[in-house]
Design brief:
This protein has 493 residues and is of the alpha/beta class. The protein folds into two domains: 8-397, no CATH class; 406-482, STAS domain (Transcription Regulator spoIIAA, 2-Layer Sandwich). It has helices at residues 8-32, 37-49, 69-79, 81-100, 112-134, 143-148, 150-158, 161-180, 192-206, 219-222, 228-232, 237-262, 272-288, 298-306, 313-328, 338-352, 355-364, 366-381, 384-403, 431-439, 459-473, and strands at 62-63, 295-296, 406-411, 418-426, 447-457, 481-482. The strands form two sheets. The chain has a four-stranded mixed sheet with strand order 3-4-5-6, covered by helices on one side. β4 (418-426), α20 (431-439) and β5 form a beta-alpha-beta unit. It is elongated and about 95 Å long. The termini are far apart. It is found in: Membrane. Keywords: Membrane, Transmembrane, Transmembrane helix. It comes from Streptomyces nigra. Its main location: membrane.
């Protein structure tokens, strides 16, 4: 057996570690998304047993992700739980088409600042929303209201014994997660998230604390494939925008995770188009089951690599362990305190905010840092999809501005013609600067315009230079002489 599967021992051990990491996260993401806890397990099972079998990234692990929590919550609130399956199914089919068209590699062209800004914005919304859940309070609907309402929530919590008890359990969970990494390596055999949930569950049960726990419906009752009525919602333009948002964000998160996982090991590199198709198959199955959308998850993937996984068998087995747990021990979910899950997600949201990257970018690339912050703020202020679009638009504008770098050098020796040298890329973005400088030249002096240093001259600049040359030559001065007549034809000549 070991001869046929030489890495079975390492993969088996790694699968248990990934299972223990994934279990509390699957449940926590589902609860935070406003859906039955079992649906998070369903997505984790599909991520292991379906996507895990496919080619793409051999060590990357897929499942429900905190990064899509906000988007799922908004979709369920707006369209209802039955429509979630349709949205996820459609997103999976689009991912399949994109993979077949070999568009996976193009996701690597997305600005890293936009992606990090997206994760930071998601992290802020998760933290703000789950702080209410940790106190057993209902969170406002919009991102700004969540943040602005926190002072009032603190006052409400301080005046309620039940809220303070719930908040203490959530804070204790976060403390365990933070301190767990400082324990000796042998003690950290149990993943921090699982240890935090187990300790919180034990404390609430032993002391009989009055805190909300996970509502359990059972796996068969939670799986609700979308009916024909749900498919009728595809006629709504708003739901189409949500599908596009699911597709782009899930794909970007998965492929950026794949790039990060590739840096952790020396095994086979990710085949991006095949990985995108694998994610598409997984989301199609999840949608057909009415479950949460899936992405590749960096927390589970890094745990898989660090635990010594060698092949895709580890992630497949982790899906099997999730299935066995959901089938044999579903009632244990009802013991888990909701504030403990909220604490796990607050910690996860905090880790999504790239504090070090922001500081580094501000020191060396302030434009990129501003794009990151603007994307995050836009997601909090508006919503996920529009916030990402704003970030992408800012990245495109910044790139266009930098690509249109232009230098204008004026040489005036006091007598004879004035020499104007243009070098770089002359685009409409730099047109005001060009015209201000040229129009400030004395009207009674001849001008020699040297364009030989230009790499690019767009139509707007070409036309503007022709018009300026005509005006400058119309006052009786010698016609403007252009040293690159193939670029600009000056009628005044």
């Amino acid at each position: 057996m070991l001869t046929k599967y030489p890495h079975l021992r390492q993969d088996f051990a790694a699968s248990l570690v990934v299972f223990l990491v994934a279990l509390p996260l699957c449940v926590g993401v589902a609860v935070a998304s406003g859906v039955p806890a079992e649906l998070g397990l369903v997505t984790g099972i599909v991520g292991g047993t379906v996507t895990g079998l496919m080619r793409g990234s051999s060590l990357q692990v897929s499942g429900p992700a905190a990064g899509l929590t906000v988007l799922v919550f908004e979709a369920v609130n707006e369209f209802g739980l039955p429509a979630l399956g349709v949205i996820v199914l459609a997103a999976g089919l689009i991912q399949l088409v994109m993979g077949a068209l070999k568009l996976g590699r193009w996701f690597r062209a997305i600005s890293v600042s936009v992606v990090e800004g997206m994760l930071a914005g998601i992290g802020l919304v998760i933290i703000a929303g789950q702080l209410y859940s940790a106190a057993g309070l209902e969170a406002p609907a919009s991102g700004p209201d969540k943040i602005l309402g926190l002072p009032g929530a603190v006052v409400d919590a301080l005046g309620s014994t039940t809220a303070l008890t719930s908040l203490t359990v959530g804070a204790g969970t976060i403390a365990v997660l933070v301190l767990w990494k400082k324990l000796p390596s042998k003690a950290r055999t149990v993943p921090g998230a699982l240890a935090a949930v187990l300790l919180a569950t034990l404390v609430t049960q032993v002391f009989g604390l009055s805190v909300a726990t996970v509502e359990v419906n059972g796996l068969p009752a939670s799986i609700q494939p979308p009916g024909m009525d749900a498919f009728g919602s595809l006629a709504d333009p708003a739901i189409l925008g949500t599908i596009i948002a699911f597709t782009l964000i899930a794909s970007a998160e998965s492929l950026f995770s794949a790039a990060a996982v590739d840096r952790m090991h020396d095994g086979p590199r990710t085949e991006y188009d095949k990985e995108l198709m694998a994610q598409g198959v997984g989301n199609t199955v999840c949608g057909a089951l009415g479950a949460l959308p899936m992405t590749a998850v960096i927390v589970r993937s890094s745990a898989n690599v660090q635990a010594g996984a060698r092949t895709k068998a580890s992630r497949v087995m982790h899906g099997v362990w999730l299935l066995l747990f959901a089938a044999l021990l579903p009632s244990t979910l009802a013991l888990i305190p909701l504030p403990a899950l909220a604490g796990i997600l607050v910690h996860a949201g905090f880790k999504l905010i790239p504090f070090r990257e922001i500081v580094s970018l501000w020191r060396h690339h302030r434009g990129e840092a501003l794009i990151l912050v603007a994307t995050a703020v836009s997601i909090v202020a508006v919503n996920m999809f529009e916030g990402v679009l704003i970030g992408l638009a800012l990245a495109v504008v910044k790139t266009a501005w930098e690509a249109s770098h232009l230098r204008l050098e004026i040489v005036d020796k006091g007598a004879g013609p004035i020499h104007a040298h243009l070098s770089g890329n002359a685009t409409f973005l730099r047109l005001p600067k060009i015209l201000d400088s040229l129009e400030s030249l004395p009207q009674d002096r001849p001008v020699e315009l040297d364009l030989s240093g230009l790499h690019h001259l767009d139509h707007a600049c070409r036309t503007a230079l022709e018009n300026w040359a005509e005006r400058h030559s119309a006052v009786g001065t010698e016609p403007v002489r252009v040293t690159a007549p193939e670029l600009v034809k000056v009628a005044a000549r």
